[in-house]
Each structure stands twice: as C-alpha cells, then as structure tokens.
Design brief:
Among the domains are: 175 residues, no CATH class; 77 residues, no CATH class. The two termini are 44 Å apart. It has a 15-stranded antiparallel β-sheet that branches. It has 2 helices and 35 strands. By secondary structure, the chain is mainly β. A hairpin with a 5-residue loop joins strand 33 and strand 34.
C-alpha cells in the first residue's frame, strides 16, 4: 500500500457533550498537542586528582502535561428552520422552533459554565429565543467548568484511511473575538484536555449541523459600531425574591428624576423565586444620586422586588469641558475582546511514576480588549476621538472609571450581528499611533459590578433565516 499523507484542509471537528454532537467548522491553523514534564539532573563537579570532571546528566519524566489545543471559528448566528426541518436536506436542526442559534454555541456553553443542554438550548450560558440568542457568564463563578461527565472534541484527519483524535475532558480557557476592518468576524479559541488518543477511536456522527452550508450568516467586520456611554445603571439588586414564579417575570425600570433612558433587563427564576436580574442594556445618561425601581410583572408569582443603583462616579455633564461627556461618537478601525478563564491543572507529584493531572481549576476571570480609531476633531460636537483623549487624560481625580461599552459587530440593527456588552468597563487613556494617518488605541478591562457576581460581559447573537 502507498504511504498515506494527511492534509489539514480535509479535517473536521466535532464537539461532544453528553449524547449530543455538534459539527463545528474550523479555520486553517488548528493545533493540538500533549507533552511530558521532564526533570533533568546534571553533574557539576571540579576535577579529580586524575584530571577528570564528570559532566553526565539524567532525565526523568515527572508527569503528563495537560493537552493543549487551539482553533478558530467564524461567528455564525442563524435562525433555526425549526418545524421545517424535513425540507432542509441533509441538515440536523438545532431547534424545533424558530429560535436564534449559532454554529459555535456549544463552545460558548463550555467556556461559561456547566454546559447543561436541554430543550434545544443551554441553561443560562446560551439562551435561544425567537428574538436573539443571549450568552452570559452567570454560571462561570465555579471552580471547574464543563459538564460533570466531561466533554470531548474529535478531530478527523484525511479524506481516505482517516485518523480520528479524541481530546478527552476538554475545558475552554480563552476566547478572543477579532473584528479587524477588512475581515470576517471570527473567534480564536484555546483550551486544555486531559488526554489525546487515537487508537480505537471512532468519529461520532453529528446530531446538530444546522447552517453548516449557509453562506449568508457570516458577519462583515466593516459594519461594526461602538457605543460608549458614561453614567449608566448598574446590576439590579434583588430586595425580595417573591414566590410562586413558574416563568421569568417581565422587568421594567422606572425613570429616575436625574434622567437616563433605555435600561433593560431579564429576570432569572430559581425554585419559584426571582434569584437575579441580568442587565441586558445599561442605558445611558443616568446621573441621579437616587436609585430607580425595577417593576417585575407576570411569571405566575408575587412579591419580587428589586432596585438599581446608578453610576454617579464620574458625573458626566455633556458640556464640552475637560471632563467626561455622557457619550462619545467613535468610528472604529479595528479591535479585539478577549475572555479568559485562567485555567490551571492540578497534578500529583509522586515519585517513581509518570503522574497524570487529576483535573483543572479556574483562576480569576478576565475580560479585556482594545479598540482603535482615527484621531479626529469635530468642531460641531464634543464627542470626537480627540475629545475622548483630552477628557480621559484630564481625569486625575477618579481612580476607577466606569464606561458602558457595546460593540455591535455587523452593525447596530443589521442581521446577522453579534453584540458584546461590557456594562462597567475600566478604560485606559488612549495611546497615539503615529503613522501616515494618526490613530489612537484604547485598552479596557471589563469588570463585574461586585466581586461576587459574573456580569463582566454578556454577548448577544442575532441571526437571520438562511
């Protein structure tokens, strides 16, 4: 038989969570590997009376390092064909209803929590609905991520005499969303696994592969917009959970005396009571020192109440002086947002054997990013990029600033699109890039409203019928 060679372009990737398998196309440049941790012992002595200095060394395998992998996917939201599945030749639908989904949604579920999958959606991490699909980090405040039974990633290589590699017990460590001006929106994923095996491994059949052949659900980065506001609402606090709720009640925010608009949120019900409210849009222009009330209605229960404090740290005035404005109008030329779980593996240190990691633990969750735009001055307003730099550099009395950032990748109203919302981002002073056309780059850290919650960022997918 002639020697078989394998080309990366013939590869496929499947993600297995329980009994459900997602087919997720990856881009060129994926990788996976596993190594051993080695200790070397060398001799270091002076010469003997015979003029000899021994210089030998020994090597010992201490432990098997966690496997590492990385790959990239495009951002691909879509509306499931739902009940029309029989008409979708060869497709295995993601839903039985016309809900919004994403080709890569299983990866977000693994990144953000236990990835519990039921009724065509992931509990909390990836919520599908008829208006959008919402991703949040509410379930990520845990020491380990992924389902109890573990999740697996399979890579099948080649078009004949195929080889399948199984990455067992995978955990997603980092996701970087890139939106350079001339490209298609994509996510770079990286993570770890317990082992990599190929002997006796078969490639599992996909149970969900909807929108794999669609050509309309790619997102052009050139359409991306940024909303940057100051003086916004913060995460609502539950003052009473109530009882008897069978579904999430509707959330309505009152208008505070000091002004502000467009704050919205959704309630989460646990054991019949409202356990938290997720702020889906922090709004803009809130300046009051008061709090505003959250009215909860419907859901089959009673007694739930909540209030929302307002961010008055920076007192935005909008008068054009050297202090922060209520909002800024910046046209982007590029940017990234990186979410990291800072995963480490715990490994025994017994002598005489090659130790194997017993499992992973999470570190501090970080959400960071940057955005770039041209340096511009506009005499008709005080919200241009030059004003943004001037106001930030003049802010010498505030040790911790707070901005409400919303990146609308694909546009604010178009479809398909992806929105990344960071309601309380600490923004650094922009730096200048001196080139033919001068630009500024701004870095930020998206922070939670308090240390014990996970509202650093939430992500919304809006798909389209393909």
């Amino acid at each position: 038989m002639a020697q078989q060679l394998y080309f990366s372009r013939d590869s496929e990737m499947h993600v297995e969570i329980g009994s459900v398998v997602w087919k997720i196309p990856v881009l060129e440049g994926f990788s996976f590997s596993q190594a051993t941790n080695v200790t070397e012992i060398g001799l270091n002595e002076m010469e003997s009376t015979g003029g000899v200095s021994r210089r030998g060394r020994r090597a010992f395998n201490d432990s098997l390092a966690a496997a590492e992998f990385s790959f990239s996917t495009y951002v691909r939201p879509f509306i499931s064909k739902g009940a029309s599945a029989p008409a979708s030749t060869g497709a295995l639908e993601a839903d039985s209803a016309l809900n919004h989904h994403a080709v890569e949604e299983a990866l977000w579920a693994l990144f953000g929590g236990p990835a519990t999958y039921a009724s065509n959606t992931f509990t909390d991490q990836f919520n599908a609905s008829t208006s959008k699909a919402h991703i949040n980090l509410n379930s990520s405040n845990v020491s380990t991520l992924g389902p109890d039974a573990g999740a697996n990633i399979y890579f099948q290589l080649g078009d004949a005499n195929k080889i399948t590699y199984k990455l067992t017990g995978v955990v997603l460590n980092e996701a970087t969303i890139n939106f350079d001006i001339d490209g298609i929106a994509q996510i770079d994923w990286s993570g770890m696994a317990s082992t990599i095996t190929s002997e006796g491994v078969s490639f599992p059949a996909a149970t969900i592969n909807e929108a794999q052949g669609a050509t309309t659900n790619f997102i052009r980065n050139r359409l991306t917009t940024l909303s940057i506001a100051v003086g916004t609402a913060t995460t609502p606090a539950i003052t009473a959970g109530g009882s008897g709720y069978t579904s999430a009640p509707a959330v309505t925010f009152s208008a505070p005396a000091g002004g502000g608009t467009t704050a919205t949120g959704t309630a989460v019900v646990t054991s019949g009571a409202v356990s938290k409210i997720i702020l889906t849009n922090a709004g803009a222009g809130y300046q009051s020192t008061d709090t505003m009330t959250c009215t909860l209605s419907g859901g089959g229960g009673t007694g739930a109440t909540a209030t929302t404090a307002l961010n008055t740290t920076m007192n935005p005035t909008g008068d054009g002086t050297a202090e922060l404005e209520k909002n800024y109008s910046l046209t982007l030329t590029g940017g990234t947002v990186t979410l990291t779980n800072n995963i480490t593996y715990t490994t025994p240190e017994e002598l005489g054997i090659v130790n194997v990691a017993v499992g992973h633990v999470t570190g501090s969750r970080t959400v960071t990013g940057n955005f770039t735009c041209y340096l511009a001055d506009d005499t008709t307003n005080t919200q241009a990029s030059k004003d943004f730099f001037d106001d930030m550099s003049a802010l010498t009395t505030v040790t911790s600033n707070k901005f409400d950032l919303t990146f609308a990748i694909g546009g604010g109203t178009g479809t398909p699109r992806m929105e990344i919302h960071c309601p309380q981002a600490h923004v650094d002073i922009p730096t200048h890039a001196i080139e033919d056309l001068i630009s500024i780059e701004t870095t930020f850290n998206a922070l939670p409203s308090t240390l014990d919650v996970a509202d650093d960022a939430d992500i919304t997918y809006v798909g389209l019928t393909y």
